[in-house]
Structures are given as structure tokens and as C-alpha cells.
Write a structure and sequence with these properties.
Elements lengths: L6 H16 L14 H6 L3 H14 L6 H11 L5 H13 L9 H18 L3 H7 L13 H17 L4 H16 L8 H11 L7 H13 L5 H12 L8 H13 L7 H9 L8 H16 L7 H10 L6 H13 L7 H4 L3 H21 L2 H17 L2 H16 L7 E5 L11 E3 L7 H4 L14 E5 L17 E4 L2 E4 H6 L2 E5 L5 E5 L14
Antiparallel strand pairs: 1-2, 1-3, 3-7, 4-5, 6-7
Length: about 525
Amino acid sequence: MLLRAPLRNHYISYLWPHIAQKHGIKLDGSKLPLLTSEAFSKAKRTSDRLALAYAAVQEEKQVSFVPKAIQDILKKDNFSNSGDYLVLGLLMHTQKDGAYTLSSTEASMFQFQLYTILLNNIYSPAELCLILPIFKRSDIKLEYQGLRKELYDRLHQLVKQSSFDSITLSCIVNLAVILNKDPILILKDDSKHILSILNETNYSKMSIQASIKVMSLGVTRGLTITKGSNINLKRLENGEMKHLSLREVVGVLYYYKRTNLSKDSAIIKYAQELLPIKSVDSIQDAIDIIQCYSYMADMGVVDDLFYEKLVQVVNGLPLIPQLDKALVCQKVMSVLSPSSTLSEVGSSDKCINLLTYTLLSYRFLKTNLLPSPDQNKLAHLCRLVRRHLPKNEIELKVYQEFLKNYLNSDQISFAYILPHMSSPNLVFGHLSGNSLYIPSYLLENSGHVKPVPEIGEWFVIMGTNSSKSIDEGQISNVDELLFGKRLIKKNQLTALGYKIIVVSSNDLIIHQDRISETILRWSFET
């Protein structure tokens, strides 16, 4: 078996639940097997037993049986593939000091047996890259350094002889990083050795996409592959960039941003020509375009239309879920550094609309759908907007943008708690399961009289089908309404302090005299 994926992912994330189910091993609430010696003994195949043992070690769950299990495996099992040897080696070397009860003699015999087996059963560069970190431990005896060197020589030969894909090269890059950061290397030139392998790779024979992927990974991990970088730069400047997908353009800009590429480069000029004509057909397209603009901004390539282009990308999005729009807006906001101010980027209506649109996306989805880093970004955005606009102007613009972007059709799948224009807080909520009709006068910023409650009072627009008429005579027939996530009788709403008011023939408004716990609310002062 040639292991191309990270070992832990391969053996735990994928195999573990299947193995546990196959052998009747119970899973607890977090989907981790309750590993015991009895459960372990149910697994008959060597690969299954190794995977379970490795999983137990990684999660530090009931590992007392593992030492004996490993000894039993060594004595009794017939290994069928190099992947089994590899897991066994990692098992031995991921244990904390003293975790095994092997004597020094047994450990020495185990190491010799393991390393000899590994040396004779590894056939691909990817497998070698996964095995070599085993040899970086400080407790490896000096006599095994020869085996270690032999493995490096084997890897070097394979690299010279093979024309392999970017996945294998990615394994090599990761290996170089591991060795480069290890403070207790026996062979101090390991990382240089791997870098020489990377620089000897014939990138000109690889696709431009594959070589860019490898180099992007390298620079992400702190390694610069000089030869490959120079080759790719020439290929890109000679026109191969036009064959790249939008996602690959992102990788190119990211790599050369980290290598201080001149903003006069043909690559940058091509990106400037390419991005405005790229169609936004999916959420990933939007994120990729915004990311490209962000990298170009980092390189100082920002023109007067920069932020207008970002607004166009957001406004040009296809009809996609609101959570996806929030993620796109997160990318837009990443263009603005934490120290940015509106005065620095221009306080035009476009910028304000972009900021408020982002704010609304976050606020609407804030409760359970966005992770804490995004909550922090939201807090920064709130501070950014508050710093440069009077409070009432902020509320007005946010409210207008909210109506403009979310309530642009007669029916939508949410109902909202509308904010009071003079309230110090902005409050939004939703009621699930109802369609919503918004009367035209709520969508207009004109002199029409609006149903504005007193400070502290909220309005909830409840959904009705706009094709059906509800008038004064019919309102008594509305006995059940979806409120929050529960069906509530009309008399229950009345008891909670709500008064049902018919505003027009097509909409139903519930006026709340006091705040109920069933409504979600967010303060603008995040």
C-alpha cells in the first residue's frame, strides 16, 4: 500500500470508525472507540489492530494495553504491506518516555527489526518521507545512523529517477519542514539535503499547476525553492499564466507575494488584466477573486477602483445562502488591515455600503454559525464603522443596506425584528418557517409615515403568503403562529404581551410590548 495521505488522517479519520463498527467496538459521544484489550483482540487483521493502537496512542485513551499488543504483533503477525510497518514505527516513536515496558535490549531489537523491515519494504518517495521523521529521535542508537543515511540515499535516487506528482513533492516539502525545525537532529544537514532534492527536481517537466502547488506549500512552511521559483517565473511571464484557473492564480500571487516580486512583473500585469473579466459563477470564485485583490494590495498594487471592484464582486454574487455571503464578506474585510480606517480607504458610499453589508451578514449569522475568529473580525468591523460615522448615521445606513440586500423580494424565508431608528442598539432576529411580505413603505426612504415604535419596543413582522389576503375580518382566524422555533397560540402571544395588528391586507405585524426570551437579539455594541 502506497501511503499518499497524512498517516493520521488515513488511519484514524477514515479507518477508525469502520474498524470499530466492524469489530463491535462501542463509540462514545465523540466518536472515539472505547479501546480496551478485549476490544483490541477482536480486531484480527494486522492493519486494523495497528490502526486501533495508533488511535489509542494519539488520543491518550486507555493505552496501557498497547505495549503488550505491540510485542504480540511483532511476535505473531504477518505483515502484509509497508503501511503496516510504517504504523508500527510511528507507534513506537509517538509514545512518551516510559510509556512502553520494553527493556533496552527489547527496544534495541525492535528498532533493528523495524528499520530493517522498513528499508526493504518502502517503494515510493511518499512513503520514505513519512518514515524518515522516525529517524530524527534523539534516542536512536548510533549504529542506526547508517540505515538512516541509506534511506536518504534511497529517497535521493527515487527523486532523480522518477517523474512524480505534486502530492509526492508535497510530502517531501513537509519532510524538509519537519527536519528543519527539529532541534535535536543527529544529521545536521538533513534539511539542506532535502532542499537540494527539491531544487534538483525537474520542474520544467511538471505542469505549471503542479509546480506552483509545491512551491506555495514550501513558502507557506518557510522554505523557498529557488530553482523552481526561477523556472516557474519564466514560464508564467512567457504566457503560461493564461492557462491557469482562478484558484491557481491565487497560488501564484500568494507565492510571489512572499518572495517580494516586483509589482511591475508581467505576472502582476496579467493578474490586473485577468481579474476584471473573470466571471463570478460560484462562492469559491468570489472568494478567489477577493483573495487575489488582497494579495495585490499587499504588494502595493492598488488603484483608485480597487474597492469598487470588491463591491462589484460582492454585489455580483449569484443567489447563494447567506452564510456563504458572510464568508465572502469576511474575505473582503481581510483586505482591510486591523489598523485601517475609513479615512485611509476612502469614506465613499461604496465603502460604507460594503462595510455595512458585511456587518449585516455577520450579525445575522452570528449566534452559532461563525467560529470565534470571525466573531473577533466582526468586533473589529463594528469599531471601525463606529469610529467614523455618527451613531444615527450608522444605524440608518445599516438599516437601509439591510433592506436593500435582504428584503429585495416579496417573499423571503425569514421574518425579522426591525431595529428602531433612534435606539442605541441595533437588533435583528428571525422567525423560521414563514414567508414574509414587506410593505412598500418600509422599503422607501421618503416622507411616508412609518410604524415607528417607542424606544425599547420592537416590531416583529410575521410571515403570510402575499397571494392571500388577510383583513380585519379574517385576523381572528389566525390561531397559530410560528414564533421562534415553536408554534404559539394567538392567546399565548397575547399573554406574553404581544398585540396583533393588521397593517394592510397582505401583512401581519405583531407588536411586542415587552421583550421575550424567544427572540434572538444582538447588540450593536459587540
